[in-house]
Amino acid sequence: MWEYTDKVKDHFLNPRNVGVIEDADGVGEVGSLSCGDALTLFFKLDAQGRIKEAKFQTFGCASAIASSSALTEMMIGKTLEEAEKITNDDIASFLGELPKEKMHCSVMGQEALEKAIACYRGETIKKPEGNLLCECFGITDRQIESAVRDHRLFTIEDITGHLKAGGGCGKCHENIQSIIDQVQGKPKAMRPAPVPLTNIQKIRLIEETLEREIKPALHQDGGDIELVDVDGQRVMVKLRGTCAGCKASQVTLKNTVEAKLRELVSKDLVVEEVRS
Do 75 and 152 share a structural domain? Predict the structure, then answer.
């Protein structure tokens, strides 16, 4: 279960500057509803060129809302030159740090700020350099290299927490690991061939993964998940609570539940929702 600081909880439960600025000087949009996180950031300048107003609209988790709220507080009163120096690490520090699995929320804030300032200046944000590596979230190999080097990331889970890369279908995990090994100077190790799980072992491991990795996060938002059956590589589950009627439930099943089960149990598992 993730540990949130009191400041994160405060900015989530009492977010500052939520809303829209109709005549905004700058607007920045990042993310998408399909990937589970989306942020639109607005700002308005005063006569002296300082940010007098900043507002946001966020679709996402507690960390996404808290990071967006914190960012607006940090922006107000600054010139654009001062504001554009705000990094995702600054946002996390302002909140008393974020769980490593949620650092991508602060990255999303930094990217929205960069786009909003570029919007005001009439500039176009350049596409990330490098080759597309994570198709689910549009992350390139160069972005992953920079994140590994600049933020001292050592695992695929670190990358997913920071950039969301690898948090979808899981097909890019091997390439992400290769980049980590190359940047961190780790020699390639020969991995022994995996021993196939028995059906009982598979079911137990799925149940343990749901209990340890999935349910705590769902419980925070009033949701839950129940394992109904396992048939070969098909994992049938039932969503409970707020998750049952959530529009983003299929995103949660594929990008969170299925991805985590493929990572920790078997890469061939497919999660299906059972509706009663």
Answer: no
Residue 5: per-residue pLDDT: 92
Residue 142 resides in a domain: yes
pLDDT confidence of residue 264: 86
CATH of the domain at 179: 1.10.10.1100
Question: What predicted TM-score, i.e. pTM, was given to this entire model?
Answer: 0.58
Residue 228 sits in the same domain as residue 139: no
Residue 49 has pLDDT above 60, yes or no: yes
**CATH code of the domain containing 36:** 3.90.1010.10
Q: What does the DSSP assignment read for the chain?
A: -----HHHHHHHHS-SSBS--TT-SEEEEEEEGGGTEEEEEEEEE-TTSBEEEEEEEEES-HHHHHHHHHHHHHHTT-BHHHHTT--HHHHHHHTT---GGGHHHHHHHHHHHHHHHHHHHT--PPPPSS-EEETTTTEEHHHHHHHHHHHT--SHHHHHHHH-TTSSS-TTHHHHHHHHHHHHTPPPPPPPPPPPPPHHHHHHHHHHHIIIIIHHHHHHTTEEEEEEEEETTEEEEEEEEGGGG-TTHHHHIIIIIIHHHHHHT-TT-EEEE---
Q: Which residues are catalytic?
A: 35, 105
